[in-house]
Amino acid sequence: MLETPSATHLRILKQVMKVSGVCLGVVNMGLMLVWPSVAFADMQRDNSTIYGNSITLSDTQMDFVGSILPAGSLLGTLAGGHLVARIGRRGSMLWLTIPCVLAWVILAVSYNLATILIGRFVNGLYCGLVVVAGWAYAVELPDIAVRGSLAAFPTLFLQLGYIIVLVSGLCLRWYQISFVGIGTSIISVVALWFIPESPSYLIATGREDEARRELRSLRGVHADIEDEINDLRVKNSNLKSVSFFEILKIPDIRKTLIVLFVLFFIHNFCGMQIFTVNMTRIFRESGTLLGEAISSLIVFLTLLVGSTVSIFTINHIGRRNSMVISLSILVVCLVMFGSYVHTTDSEKAARAEEIKKNASAMLTTHTIKVKK
């Protein structure tokens, strides 16, 4: 007996809700990435802390605050693989609440550059861990038919975090935004209590009865889940006694890793993270008439719309074509931005040189008159 269309839609809706629950943790990552942009804009207006004392950051120090997060993220990513293998995707996401809340508390009570840097480093640890646990979890839960669309949910929720922190910055001080992050962490933990553990992890740890029960709930009562269980069992048994370097010798895995490294290289070196962290600073220096906050909000809303569109189109045009289209748009935008910066800097240099020449001429004329 086949599953009725209404039952399929209801089951897919449940998968959407579960993936959304997992992705609530990714919202916090979005808050953390854009926090410097909002905090620096607020500090330019009022640099007081929660204690009432002032804190002044130079441009170099602001750059350091924005760039220290990836350092913590690197350690978090390295530790994330081990943590996920030991306690599972869901367990990892639950434990991640500790560094997440800790980081926000440190930023809330920061009174100098050192404490802000510590908070940002812990932010990075969380981001690295959540990328490993959250993204893998979101891909494993849904059916193959909707896996491509739901795989875009982490990015969607990440950009939702961008917007939340930017809107929060319109009415909250830079240290008060941390309480929004703490609230998001609590909501994420509550949602995770209603989400099952990854079937892949359950099978890897020998809990096949639980895995079968969760897969039955995810795939429906009419689905043949034994093939999926056997496939997961074979993959886990084949890789258990194999070292990392032996895994790299497997052609399919090696090819997949090369593709992933290239994609991550493009993602991390395209400059998008730099724009994200320094969005308000960029718009403030550009002299936008809308103001840096509204201009940044428009950019992040555009990102959110793009991610939403990809959810509905990715299964029709494919992941590769979607990536080619997005990278093509990115190249055009980077060329436009680079041309603008080059032209602006050239004009500033020309004006500075003209002012220097005029000042030199006036000084020379004044000197001649004095001598006469």
Automatic annotation (TrEMBL):
InterPro entries associated with the record: MFS_dom (IPR020846), MFS_sugar_transport-like (IPR005828), MFS_trans_sf (IPR036259), MFS_Trehalose_Transporter (IPR050549), Sugar_transporter_CS (IPR005829)
Major facilitator superfamily (MFS) profile domain location: 14-372
Coiled coil ranges: 208-242
One of the record's GO molecular function terms: transmembrane transporter activity
Subcellular location: Membrane
Name used for this protein in its record: Major facilitator superfamily (MFS) profile domain-containing protein
Membrane topology according to the record: Multi-pass membrane protein
Membrane-spanning intervals of the chain: 21-41, 64-85, 92-111, 117-138, 150-168, 174-195, 257-277, 289-312, 324-341
PANTHER family for the chain: GH07001P-RELATED, PTHR48021
Keywords: Coiled coil, Membrane, Transmembrane, Transmembrane helix
Principal subcellular localisation of the protein: membrane
Any one GO CC term of the record: membrane
Species the sequence originates in: Scylla paramamosain
Pfam families found in the cross-reference section: Sugar_tr
